[in-house]
Each structure stands twice: as C-alpha cells, then as structure tokens.
Design goal:
It is a single chain. By secondary structure, the protein is an alpha+beta fold. It has one domain: Glutaredoxin (3-Layer(aba) Sandwich), CATH 3.40.30.10. 28% of the residues lie in helices and 18% in strands. The strands form two sheets. A four-stranded mixed β-sheet has the order 4-3-5-6, covered by helices on one side. It has a two-stranded antiparallel ribbon with strand order 1-2.
C-alpha cells in the first residue's frame, strides 16, 4: 500500500482520502501542543503559506505518546494550532505513531525511511517525512531539524 491509498480521520472527524495529494509534495509531521518544539508550528505554517501554490502541503498528526505533550481533544488541538499559530494546513485526529498501536500510515512511513541510527521508530514529536508527488518517502527529518532547514530542501524540489 502506498501513501495515496491511505484514508485518515481529519481533526474535524471527516474521512480524508490521501489520493487528493497525488501530484503534491507533502510533509507529514507528528505534532504536540505542549512540547519544547511546539514553536515549529510557526515554521510549518510558513512552509505551507509560501509553497501551497507550488503543489506542497503540511499534514499535521497530533500524538500524545511522547511525554503526554498532546493531552487535549481534537477540538482543543485544532483551536490551539489555529489561534496560536494561525495554522491552515490539514490536521488529523490524534494518532499513535510508534509501537504496537501505531496507525497504519505511520507503520508504513517508518518502514520506508529509518532514523539516522538505523532504527525505524519515531523518536519524538515533530519527526517529519517528506513525500514526493508520486507518494514516495524521499526524506525523513528528525525532530530538531527545523522547518526553515526543510525549506531550503523544498526549494530544490519544487
């Protein structure tokens, strides 16, 4: 199964089919509202704003697995991202991204690109996977890699 065959629950409860992302670069990110890296939302939104018309979108997946730093409901998470960071990129219902209960999308993502240390699992909040227009994982960025650093890579691709 490839990236474009997935369907996930949007943060508003609607089903979102990923075939709508065919032909676009996507940056899949597990986000958290109470993490030291939460300010990355600002850079993620800047990537979205600056590149949406070039066929790019950020996809945010809230996750509470790392230090319980995403404790809110989907509605609270959505309100936080929009009111604090003016996030306009698609957000999804809270998921697990590692372990036995990891959602199917993250099982697939981590099977495609391992961490630099060779381990497949997601290490922390704000791990990012860059998907090409054909649905392939072309790059994985660990949490401390900022959206600004990813922006220079995007300029090469878009």
């Amino acid at each position: 199964m490839g990236f474009h065959q997935y369907k996930m629950k949007g943060i508003d409860g609607t089903d979102v089919a990923f075939d709508q992302y065919q032909g676009k670069h996507c940056l899949v990110v597990n986000v958290a509202s109470e993490c030291g890296m939460t300010p990355q939302y600002e850079g993620l939104q800047r990537l979205q704003s600056n590149n949406a018309e070039k066929g790019f979108t950020v996809l945010g997946f809230p996750c509470n697995q790392f230090g319980e730093q995403e404790p809110g409901t989907d509605a609270e998470i959505c309100d936080f991202a929009q009111s604090r960071y003016n996030a306009t990129f698609p957000m999804f219902s809270k998921v697990e991204v590692r372990g036995d209960n990891a959602c199917a999308l993250y099982q697939w993502l981590t099977s495609q690109k391992a961490r630099p240390d060779g381990k497949p699992n997601v290490a922390w909040n704000f791990t990012k996977f860059l998907i090409d227009p054909d649905g392939n994982v072309v790059e994985r960025f660990e949490p401390r890699v900022t959206p600004e650093e990813i922006g220079s890579r995007l300029r090469e691709l878009l």
